[in-house]
Amino acid sequence: MNTVTFEIFRYDPDKDKEPYYQTYQVEMRRPGYLMLDALNQIKWEQDPTLTYRRSCREGVCGSDGLNVNGVNMLSCMTKVEDLGSDHIVVQPLPGMNVMRDLVVDVDDFFAKFITVKPYLIRHTPNPDKEIYQSPEDRKKLDGLYECISCGCCSSSCPSYWADKKYLGPNAFLRAWRYIVDSRDEGADERLPILNDKHGVWRCHTIYNCVEACPKELNPTEAIMNIRKLLLENKI
Amino acid sequence: MSVKIEYHKFDVVVVGAGGAGLNAAQVASQYCKTAVVSEVYPTRSHTISAQGGISAALGNLEEDHWHWHMYDTVKGSDYLCDQDAAEYMTKQAPEMIIALEHIGLPFSRTPEGKIAQRPFGGHTAEFGKRAVKRACYAADRTGHAMLQTLYEKSVAQGTHFYSEFYALELLTNEGAVNGVLCYDIQSGELHVFNAKAIVFATGGNCRIFQTNSNAHINTGDGLALALRKGYSWSDAEFFQFHPTGIYGAGNLITEGVRGEGGILLNAQGERFMERYAPTIKDLAPRDIVSRSMTLEVLEGRGVGPMKDHTLLKIDHIGAANIMEKLPGIHELALVFAGVDCTKEPIPVNPTAHYQNGGIPTGYLSQVIKGNMDKEEFVPGFFAAGECASASVHGANRLGTNSLLDLVVFGRTAGEQAAKYAAQNSLVPLAENAGQEGLGFLNKYANANGKYTFGEIWGELTRTMQTKMGVFRTDKLMKECYATLLELEAKMDDYRVNDKSSVYNLDLIEALELNNMILVAKACTQAALLRKESRGGHFRDDYPDRDDANFLKHTEVYLEEDGKTPRVDYRNVRLKPLTVETFPPKPRVY
Fold first, then answer.
1. pLDDT digits 0-9 by tens, A77-123
2. Which of A69, B32, B268, B430 is the most buried (most CB within 10 A)?
3. Residue A143 touches chain B, beta carbons under 8 Å
């Protein structure tokens, strides 16, 4: 059976003065063996102290964003064989504070997401039935509503690393999802937040977020759309 | 271990942040100070994985009526659901869907801009005459769209969130439920929440099976906590084995695939469901399809080198249609089966998917404590969603009725809890509240024995899979129970290697495993004593439904020792709220 070397970032604030890397040998037990299978094999058979987040194991809950051989990805949707290497370096998502091993602090990430008022804002009274939305208008939400808040985008962004108050691509994608929704009337409330000095102008359009997104979404495009709207409104 | 305990007071505390918990929380937050405690960040709860749809008789594409939906729900349940709850849920469904749409849920649309609907298993028009388009959906990401929307709504509503908090003990005093003891996974600190009302929305437990569609967190913790406080688990023996789990992995392929025209094939290329359910074929309810697939395999018509599974074919509806309506499925089939479903069929097998029973409640989500002679509501205790049993699913849940159950009974639980909190004062904590939960925590934090999670959980899930699965017998279930007792004993010689106070997942897994063994024992005992076949509970030694003896809810309690199941029963509420009872009939499709 093929064996792959995993070199994993370890840090336990209770006992470690600084982080270190620990090496494990992992058996590839079937074709398509996933990164999460490998981490579980280590935890359940070799070293129960290895710590990482995971839940749904099918790429929708967003718990298991990791940096693998320098690239952000979800462990549950990444096949080890697709990495093209028998030496895998696993690190926590960059640019976020490490709590323990591969677990990072995401409170700030979620707080930023909430800042952009990610909910439908309406002033017109709702009808008794559903608010009608044409298939064309609904289609505008595709590529936006699928975000799973895994943090792969924001943690790949140098602007996010450098400016601790920068809202980041995840928050902008969410803001655009609501602004572009034909049912929403809250753009005026969101645009000043997005126009702030920690808002969309800090993006340097290097597309790291697009490359990092495991759901193949395009936060940079959302940021460009928000900028265009800000310019049109001359805010 | 840290011994610092922080105390909190709230009007309402919701345990669990899936669809039921968040809908309860966003509603209760409109009236009173409400907190949600959850083992994961809210958007990571398992509702996120729900794919195909949520049912409601909106009639957007063809004529439909809530009374037809109620009939399908009752018949689908194999007549074990409570008909007042079935009426309540199906009647509220259309208005509930509109409410979700109004707060932003991005439903797919019809050409004229209405909410789109698709057929789903067991949903029919005119009391069983033909399949009907009743499932509202957002592509094949309906649960994801719903959970995000409800999270965002509860944030807007000012709900207090305590994420990555693991519940250790349900607290009671003076005959009422009044709190919950939690362990902060991030810091290792303890928190006691004292509240006027507690809503349990803790989800399911199908991680006790080897092949399952569930998330790592679905370990039945809420059930275990309720059982230890003397409350029961209703209809514990009824699990739903979803027909189309990806072969080898267990991850779900939505029934929406068959709703959009997908068909099941055996090794001979035969559409075998035509033999088992001539009227609605591949859209028969899940218990029937899962049994039919298993029979095909047992009779030698399985596919693959091991002849041990069947195929789900969808490529004939066209790649563009698949990518518009079922994009998530395309991705899952690629990753977990290595199959491009626009060109090839997906290998599938039944997968443990859903816990049909739960903590018993009335149709207003109030937790019930009872038996055949009497029943009463537990002051301050409400439950909704998969952990609860109103009961609308009985012996078998219809597809898309779970998301509906979450939001309807979640909202009701939120309203009722807020109302209860307004009318009652806070029951103070008992002296030494939380000792039991602390006992488990200390036991496992200091466990230096022999056995670890991997080996015990592996044996637990293999045993449940082979002996408590789609087909059951007295002999298999007795063997299963004996193995569970051995595993329980091993938990006294357990080892938690990780001694850290920060994000100690080794410790959390130990606590979860302890709960999983308890719930596995409880459902196995319930199954042993139900000597009939009904819905998801099928016994080779008692293959027929027996209404004379078993048209009643199982209620599993724990004996005084806190670990031995005691099986009792409770009457089914056959009388609906306003319409006539649907009397039990043979269940053919």
1. 999 999 999 999 999 999 999 999 999 999 999 999 999 999 999 99
2. B32
3. no
Q: What is the pLDDT of residues B242-252, one digit of tens each?
A: 999 999 999 99
Last residue of a domain, one of A50, A69, A104: A104
Using CA atoms, how far apart are residues A145 and B521, in angstroms rounded to an integer?
Answer: 41
Cα(A63)–Cα(B41) distance, integer angstroms: 9
CB distance B148–A181 less than 8 Å?
A: no
Given a cut of 70, whether residue B397 has pLDDT beyond it is: yes
CB-count burial class (<10 Å; 0-12, 13-18, 19+) for A194 = buried
Q: How far apart are CA A155 and CA A30, in angstroms?
A: 31
**Chain A residues touching B106 at Cβ < 8 A:** 138, 141, 145, 181
Q: Cβ–Cβ of A132/B112 closer than 8 Å?
A: yes
Catalytic amino acids of B?
Answer: 286
pLDDT above 50: residue B583: yes
Contact yes or no for B101 and A130 at CB 8 A: yes
A11 and A61 part of one domain: yes
| Residue A26 C-alpha, separation from nearest chain B C-alpha, in angstroms | 15
Q: In this complex, which of A13, A43, A77 lies closest to B502 when CB atoms are compared?
A: A13
Interhelix angle B83-102/B401-423, nearest 10 degrees: 90
pTM here is: 0.97
pLDDT tens digits, B539-564: 999 999 999 999 999 999 999 999 99
